[in-house]
Amino acid sequence: MKILQVSSARAFGGGERHLADLARGLSERGHEVFAALPPSSPLRDKLDPIPPRSVFTLPLLGALDLTSAARLARLARNHEIEIIHAHVARDYPPAALAARLAPRARLVITRHVLFPLGRIHRRALANVARVIAVSETVARLLRAQQIFPADKIRVVTNAVDLRRFDEARARFERESRARAQSRVPLRVGIVGELSEVKGQEDFVRAAAVIAARFGEGEGVEFVIVGEDASRAGENRARIEKLVAELGLTKQVRLLGRRDDVADVLASLDVLVSASRTESFGMAMAEASACGVPVVATATEGAREIVADGLTGLIVPIGDAQALAAAVISLLQDGPRRLALGARARESARARFGLGRMIEATERVYAEALGLR
Question: In terms of C-beta density within 10 A (0-12 exposed, 13-18 middle, 19 or more buried), how is residue 220 classed?
């Protein structure tokens, strides 16, 4: 198939990791993959399997960007594109118009988040062939909104490049054996774009409780991974201010955006997801693939990934004290922590393999094209 992936994403998160893995997997399976991205896209250096001549720069300025729609249509016609696949809500209408202007192309969209779509999408996306939801939770919301016919909605859960996380875990274990005689502090982390919805401030408040319980002598360090996509960096500034107010500048490190997230996750004893809402939670799936137990707030997405008491722990949303208590319980009980991590790894291998996601997406494309 000839497939055009469209994304105007300005920051690299779980949805963008999904797209990069999807493009790579489709290319490896013999499909001809193209991409349309804005000039400063963080995806540009993540799509290495796609030849540069197949990556196109478009403004992708929003739902009413008719210029980008016309250029998408021209690309689709010139390259005989069969599937136009859009991943960000503001790209759906231009992609839909492009599919109307390129009669051979069929429109597929992926919904990565739980925020409801607007009324504009009901008319603008009337020609959508299939809608992919990255979790059952997202699919339920889409069905409830009744913007798309229920028989067009398909659930294809996000996937993890298990090999990459196996290698990261193996590297960490080798390094741990090499420094077996030196004392290494316990490490707790949170991964995700810096924003109120991801709950980094609750994480810092929980860190204060944990640090007070263990004291400086025993040593627990906390890492916050993720970039601040706000215009003036106000999200990071707010977190840094709270860290300073709670006297945690020696224990909490803000690492920013990292290209070695797999290695960071493999180095953790516990991953925390403190989100207020979560459609899937890529970091939770990736930590599980590393054999790291997760303490997560009770979002719908977390409940699909974390089996409470088996592969991690679930706590109430917005409750920093409960978050701290759950993390402390795992840090104090090494055997339990390792057992949860081992079961999490087994679960990730069974549920989140990249091959499964690629094959399921291929089937959706085939349905959109009316193929058997």
Answer: buried
